[in-house]
Structures are given as C-alpha cells and as structure tokens.
Amino acid sequence: MGKLFENLEPIAKMASFYFERSKVIQGNIANADTPFYKPRDLVFERELEGALKLKKTDPRHIDPSGGGSYRVVELNDVNGYDGNRVNLDKELAKLAETALMTRALNEVLRKEIGKLKLSILGR
Predict the structure, then answer these.
(1) H or E stretch at 33
(2) Distance CA 102, CA 82 (A)
C-alpha cells in the first residue's frame, strides 16, 4: 500500500514550495513602493535535491544530503531612487512562472488520482 501513494508526496512538497514562493513574491509586489525594501525569493535547488533523493553509491562521491527545505534569500538586483530594489517586471514574471508550475502540478495530481481510482475500481 505504501507504493500506491508514493508519487503523491513529492507532488505535495512541490505544491507547498510554489505556494510559499507565491506568498513571498506577492509580498515583494506589495512592497514595490516601500523605501529601502529588499525583495526576497525562495531557493529552489534545495527542494529539488530533496525531491530527487540522491544516493551516495561510492565513498568518493560528494554527500548529497543537505536538507530538503528551502530558504528565503534577499535579492540585490536593482536599486531604485528611494533605495527600493523591487523590479516589478521581474516579480510579475516570477509570479506568472509560479502560477504555470502550480497548474502543471494540479494536472499531475489529477492524473495520479485518476490512476488511484483505476486501481481501486479494478479496471
């Protein structure tokens, strides 16, 4: 029974990541006019490493464990006239990317649930 639901856990982790990322990006957009505000973003690479479940098969390999959690980092791209570093165009593009990834995850989740239905019904 454990193998039946094993694909749902990575989907849930990625959905959680994109939900948190959208909240951070929305905070950046909301503070676009705040003087000296520094935009933030979530680092995706750590979440990806955790989802891939890499294995160390040789003692000479680098240890792949590094935690599966993501962290918030400050971005220092642009410096506006009031010290605000939010680039609204970049933030809106990241928000659109996050929405697309969320839709893709919803489609994957729908297909996984469809597979579960088929296995339960025995068709």
Answers:
(1) none
(2) 34
